Prior knowledge:
This protein is mainly α. It has helices spanning 25-37, 41-54, 59-80, 83-99, 103-108, 110-126, 133-145, 149-158, 166-179, 183-196, 201-213, 217-230, 235-251, 256-269, 272-285, 290-303, 306-319, 324-336, 340-353, 358-369, 374-384, 389-402, 406-419, 424-436, 440-453, 458-484, 488-497, 503-515, 519-532, 537-549, 553-566, 571-597, 601-614, 619-631, 635-648, 654-665, 669-682, 688-700.
Amino acid sequence: MNKLVKFVCITSLGLCSICPCFAGFKEHFDLGQQYLSNFQYSGAITEFKSALRINYLDNSARLGLINSYLARATYYANTDHDYKKAGDDYRAALFYLTIYPNANQVKNSAQTIVLVSSNLNKCLNAIDFDTSAQNRYATAKQLRAEGNFASAGYEFNQALSDENFVKDSLQQTADILKVLGNDPKAVEYYKKAVAVAPNDIPLRLTYAQLLDKLGQEDASVDEYNYILSKTTDNKDVLYTLERIYKRKLEDSPNDGSITANLGAIMQKEGNYDEALRYYSKAEYLDPSNTNTRLNVGTLYQQKGDYKTAITAYDSILILNPNNVQANLYKAQSLASLGDKKGALELYKKVALLDPDNETVQADMISMVKDTMTIPQFIEYAKKNYSNNAGDILYDYALDLHKKEKLADAICLYNEVIKLDNDNSEAYVNLAIAQGQEKKYDQALATINTAKSKFSDNSQITATELSLKSQYMDEKLEIAGNYYNNKDYQNAINEYLKITPATADTMLGVASAYQNLNNTDKAIEYYKQALNLAPTNSDIAFYIASLYADKEDMENAKTFAQKSLALNKTNKQAQDLLKSISENIEAQNLDKAIALFDAGKYSESLSLINNILSNDSKNAYALYYRGMIYDAQKNYNSAINDYKKAISANPDLMIVNYLIGVDYDMLEQYKNAMSYYKAFTATYSEDDDYLKYAKTRIGELAPYVK
């Protein structure tokens, strides 16, 4: 629930005189004043913002906009008690008071800023606003997404207290200022953002483009050139610089530096003929500028005309034999022409002139490593680059690894580890290369060593898992090939070599034993597979099937039920369980009949009752239970079962005879006559049963009239 808060009213700021020198400005300004005087604050805000976009310097429009935000905020707070909306408007007012204007304007508004800040804090307290930098940044993002740019700009500035949000908050504020038409203020914020994140190329490009728009060409050129140093193929930057330098050249047609720069841009664009034209003019205007001559050399070097390039470099070296760049580029050109001896001498010279030159080192290494064996190169690197031999060998190992020269890469990785035992990446890449050579035992040994040295290294853990998976796949492939070729014993041997055992390997063993008709062994390994994959319904089904083949129906039933418990939709298990149940019933019925024949009526009855508990319509079970009841002279129970039996199976015609006999014993002659007749009408065998039934029909006739 919002808290009721008393707000201090803020006297409207006086409007200064306006400068109606921009098309449309006065119309928007006058309409804004009209809306404000009529208490139509939203309309006033829209019009003053439009006026300010047309002329960002006009203080009257700025103050009108501030007054409109303050008036609407006061209404939201005191009338609607909507402290969220009020807070947003106080934020916007503070943005135009503290961030949007120049320093003098801020100074002149100091008292107002204090009062507005106080009211904003009251609103934030009323809605329990989290004032952490993280939340203020998130709020700013939300406000910007909603189109509340000024409010967002204020909150972005509040998030500057946390270094995690400084760069983005500065950039976001700059973006907002640009959207609102205050490009000079936006430049200030982009400059601050660039200082925090100097390598953010998209940011620097936006900054450069705005500098260019504002006519700050020199500053924009510096930015564009920096961008080019990091992204040489940025066509938009190149074309922009071309435009700037051409305009500069119009103002100063005899400026050798501008002319040379324009040539360099043309060279980067790939327009070599135009570049040479500008370079030629630049040399004429400024003969002492060796950079122009150096660029001419690099241009011919890019074109593959190494001899002409060398001529250009020599023209520099005649005057300055120790020019590092000329010597370096000449060395590269000689190497390209195949003069490795001459190139190597120059590389050595450059190395003496500029010991920290990384290009020289890289070029020399690239040139000599192609002429040496791996052991020779290792000794060369250790002898000539003792301080960073490990890095040099590691880079070479990576290069060879990419080219799938695995044996050489492995040799180098091992040497790197000897030189730098703390290079975790060398261990990882060594293990990967060993795995690619299918030397999994070595690879896993390497990873185990790395694990002992670098605990909790996610890259090592991931590599270990990958290698184990590859190792498993290879072993499975070997075993699978034996299996597919029906060499089941060797397949079993290979599956059992794989450690740790998995459900897949145990399934392979079980299936192979099954194909060898070794049912007991197959069951043994299917059970091991099920232990490793206890939720696999299919494995339980396989075991049930094998037990069924062995006519071990009780175990078959147990595993068929387990299979269905794991997957109720397993149709194979459903069918198997039905078949097993029927088989068990048949076996039990045979036992019951044997017991009946032996006169063991109680034991027989127990088995039959169990059968009927699962299948109450089993006709033969009902028939034999009726026979047991007959033997026990329990004629009524016998009759009841006989009737159920013939209902379940009408082909059991003898049952009509037995019912007739039982009714006869109970002296229910009419019922007996009925069933005797039913028997004689359907029974086709001419035996004692038929003769007796016909005789009793004749004998009972007098009694049932």
